[in-house]
Structures are given as structure tokens and as C-alpha cells.
Amino acid sequence: MARIILVTSFKGGVGKSTVSANLAAKLARAGKKVLLCDLDFDLGTLDLITGSEDRMLFDICDAAFGRRELDDCAVTFPSIPGLYLLGAPFRCDDEIVPEDFAERIRSLCGGFDFVILDTPGADSVTLAVARSCADEAVVVATHNPASVRGAEKTAQMLRDKGIGCRLLINCFDARSVSEDKRTGMLSMIDATKTPLLGVIPYDRALMFAQEKGVLAEGDAFISSKAFENTAQRLIAGRSGGRQVPILSGVRGVRRKKVLTK
User: Fold this and answer.
1) What pTM did the predictor assign?
2) How far apart are CA 140 and CA 23, in angstroms?
3) CATH dotted code for 3-259
């Protein structure tokens, strides 16, 4: 059965869609069959981030409500076999009842190893849908204090709903942490009361690349290895395999120094 993972935070602007797209790509690179779903019905951007906006003829609602077959709606990526995208509708005229829509999403998951649900930065109807069908959640936060508070509230809400969650720190600036200018990862773990899944370093190259629909692939992106590590930790969590150390092999980061902060 597919493992359905919700990527979320009440705070907008923390990079949930960037995380969702790149994690899905790394899982597919690892040989998994992955369905990436855009549940931000107000401002879905996964088609832009993945460079597939010109190829998305149908959306997740067309697939969920049976207007089109999944194969017609899911965008594929010749350069990343195993990755499939169901984009958000430009305008949703369907009545979205969380429990019903969650069952419809589950019905689309057969044959996939992982399903990644990208959600908006609010406690929305589509977040309720994702909560209803997710097996676990990844809560995204940055150094920003408002982001950390948002992650804390999000994680508490998920735990109250019986959903296990882990923290992913995005745009981590190791240099500023080592200079005691920004909050370190241990403080963020303590503040959010949430175990750590992964750390993605700040990547200026990715910031510009995703505007052109390019994902973090190759040595040009400092975040590429970190996304790969995080994907491997998700795989290990499912298979019971060995966990990859946080920030292992990420160039330019002195792991021992930032882990003590």
C-alpha cells in the first residue's frame, strides 16, 4: 500500500511546495513510484516548480471525481521515471467534503509507493482532506520565529488528530547558526516538540532555478544531497533500514558544529 505523507505548516512562505516537489523527485530517483498531489486549491504552484505547467491538461479534481482516468490527469517526467504529478485546479467548482474527498484520493493511490500531499499555509478544507487520508506528516519550518511557532501549532494539531509528525527545517543557514545569529536546530526541535526528519540548507541556486521549473538535481545545488538524505530517511522509516545521518555529505556544512546548537 502507498505511504501517504502530508507536507504542511500553518505558516505560509516556508517552502512547503519546494520541499514536496524535491522530496518526491528524490524518492522517485531512489526507485520508488511516487504520486505528488497539489492540494493548494487557492494558489497551487507545483506545476510551476516542476516545469510542467504547459503539460497539465487535467487536475486532481478531474481524477478524484472520475471525469478522467488517472493516466490522463497525472503529469509524468521523462527525466525522472516514477514521478507523477496531480496539479491543483485553476478553479474548483466541486463540493469538497473532507472525508469523501480523502477517500477519493486514497482510491488513486494504488500501485504507488509514496504519495506526497502538498497543502496551503492555513487550516483549510484541503488540509482537512489531507489529514483524513495521511499516514504521517512532515511539518516544515525555517529559522523565522513566526515559522517555528506555526510549526509548533501545526504539529500539536496533527498530534491531537492522531497523526504522527516530524520536523523538516528548510533554508537552514549553518553559518549564521554557528555565529550565534540565528536559532539552531536543537532549539527548533525543543520549541516545536517534534522529532527531526531532515535539514535542508539555504540554497540560493535553487531559489532562482525553481522559478524556471528546475528541481535540485546535481552538484550545482547544495540542497540536492540534503533532499536525497531526507528521502532516504523516509524510505528507511518504512523498511526499517538504517537512517542516514542528518546533513551527511552536504558540502559546506560542518555537521558536528551545527548539531550542537
Assistant:
1) 0.93
2) 12
3) 3.40.50.300
